[in-house]
Specification:
Elements (H helix, E strand, L loop, with lengths): L7 H12 L7 E2 L6 E2 L16 E6 L2 E4 L6 E4 L1 E4 L2 E5 L10 E6 L5 E5 L5 E4 L4
Antiparallel strand pairs: 1-2, 3-4, 3-10, 5-8, 6-7, 8-9
């Protein structure tokens, strides 16, 4: 194998990770580019308790969240009580879920959930 190229085994692992099908106890069959699953695992969940969200990372950086103010709901724009735009509708590739929270200056910050890059959770409930 030329130097600087990944082995077929490494490529199989990377493809497995990318598709969500890699299991830690997987083995490679001799000479085949296929992964054999030796143990079934339950699907993993990254459950985030919205009551514990203390900071939110948006494209412009980290924002402090006032305790208990982080909420997820339908992502819509309205004017005079009339819906102008609703995420997830009209064939637009935008999420139907949005977020809102109050920052440490008392400012409400809202947006589509896809703009959240990460959250930090408080240690105490």
């Amino acid at each position: 194998m030329p130097s600087g190229q990944a082995s077929p085994y490494v490529l199989d692992l990377l493809m497995g990770f990318a598709s969500g099908f890699y299991l830690p106890n997987a083995l490679q069959r001799e000479g085949a580019r296929e992964i054999i699953r030796t143990k079934e695992c339950a699907p993993m969940s990254l459950a985030i308790d919205t009551e514990k969200v203390a900071e939110v990372m948006l494209p412009d950086g980290w924002h402090t969240v006032a305790k208990g103010s982080f909420t997820l709901d339908a992502y819509e724009y309205e004017e005079d009580g009339k819906t102008l735009f609703r995420g997830g509708h009209d064939g637009l590739p935008l999420p139907a879920t949005g977020f809102v929270f109050t920052d440490d200056n008392g400012q409400a910050i809202c947006g589509p959930i896809s703009s959240i890059r990460a959250v930090k959770l408080s240690k105490a409930g």
